[in-house]
Design a protein that fits this description.
alpha+beta, 34% strand, 7 strands, outer membrane lipoprotein receptor (LolB), chain A, disordered N terminus, seven-stranded antiparallel sheet
Amino acid sequence: MTRFVFAAALALAVAGCDSVGTEAGEVDLDALLEVADQEALEDARDRWRTSGPDAYTMRYEVICFCPPVTVEVTVEDGRIVGSETTGGPAQALDVDGLYRVALDAYAEGAASVNARVTERGPPVLVDLFVDYSEAIADEEVGYRVVAFRAR
């Protein structure tokens, strides 16, 4: 039952975000590709590393059984140079960090890893949901990018 409530909340959050804008450098949330498995995720990460911008600002929501948390990170020269968290504590992650969370979940044998990346341009990981164990309730975590601007 808990998993259903979490999935419903995630679906509502996704449904409320058609896109974060249409200006240059913003992520189009209407054009996403489902990442099928670990190999496809590694391929997307490698494409991000070769074609992604070295400077950007990204805001994402952490979706879990916790108060709503939003994190905004500023990246320059491929490194996080600033972050702001609202709603509670959370680790500041850049796009590479989101890929690392997903790939670590595969390495740890997570029950499921669901990921979607942008279809056009560098593959930004904009939706990630990890269920580490089907037998444990409330340990799932999700990340939803709500704003991305290359600089």
